[in-house]
Amino acid sequence: MKQILMAGMLMTSMVFAGAAMAQKSAADGIAEYRKMLEDGNPAELYEAKGAELWKKKRGPKNESLERCDLGLGPGVVKGAWVQLPRWFADTQRVQDLESRLLTCMETLQGFNAAEIAKTSFDRGEQETIESLAAWISASSRGQKISLPQGHAEERRMYELGKRAFFFRGGPMDFSCATCHGVDGQRVRLQDLPNLTKNPGDGIGFAAWPAYRVSSGNLWTMQRRLNDCYRQQRFPYPGFASDVTIALGVYMGVNARGAESIAPALKR
User: If you average pLDDT over residues 197-205, what whole number do you get?
Assistant: First the structure.
């Protein structure tokens, strides 16, 4: 009887060990898959298009975006991405990259920012924003995330983002923290970073925008957050709304010091 019991315990241990190895192997396989695709990340096509769009004269005013101020002065692109979202005096708002591009496209080129914000992702000028986001973020690749918190509004948006991150609701009673609030969680063998603290280089906030292999598109942070709300069964947030920008501030400040690899490659 004792031998049978010991054999059963051994078999159980082997099953659990095998399951753990299978999970580790699957995670390693995903990492290897991404590594193989790194040299041919389709985001590079968006980057090239974004570089052209930045210099191209377009819109009702037939102007380029070369005088757009992303926070480091008119026309300065390198280093801007890793310091966004941030406070802008001209709009009296904390803005992320997408909302700032809307401002520049409206003031410099004459586009209607409200109409662009209502447009579906991958359509019309939303596609333009995705390409610009790819190029602008790539211009800061390898730099450290360093969101400013010197202005009172930047600090207020951080606190607002924190509240939004932990707010539970909807039919599933989910929050952002449900998936990204503790260490060691995963879904469908996909590791879920803990975004309440610095998850490390190239993880979480430091990896977006990113090309999604599963959808065949480049996703900006606005689109990533939009899909998170969908998965929580929440109503879609407005494009470039305060809550999405606040979430960006919260995650970005928490990621301070992490190296940006955007635009990254995601499954």
Answer: 94
- Please give the backbone phi and psi of residue 141, each rounded to the nearest 5 degrees, phi first: -60, 135
Are residues 240 and 186 in contact, defined by beta-carbon separation less than 8 angstroms?
no
CB 125 within 8 A of CB 105: yes
Residues 175, 167: contact at Cβ < 8 Å?
A: yes
Cβ contact 32:267 at 8 Å: no
Encode pLDDT of 81-119 as tens digits. Answer: 999 999 999 999 999 999 999 999 999 999 999 999 999
What's the Cα-to-Cα distance from 261 to each of 88, 141, 208, 257, rounded to whole Å?
25, 5, 8, 13
Asked if 50 contacts 77 with a C-beta cutoff of 8 angstroms, the reply is no
Q: Point out the residues that are catalytic.
A: 228
Q: How confident is the model at residue 267, as a pLDDT? A: 80
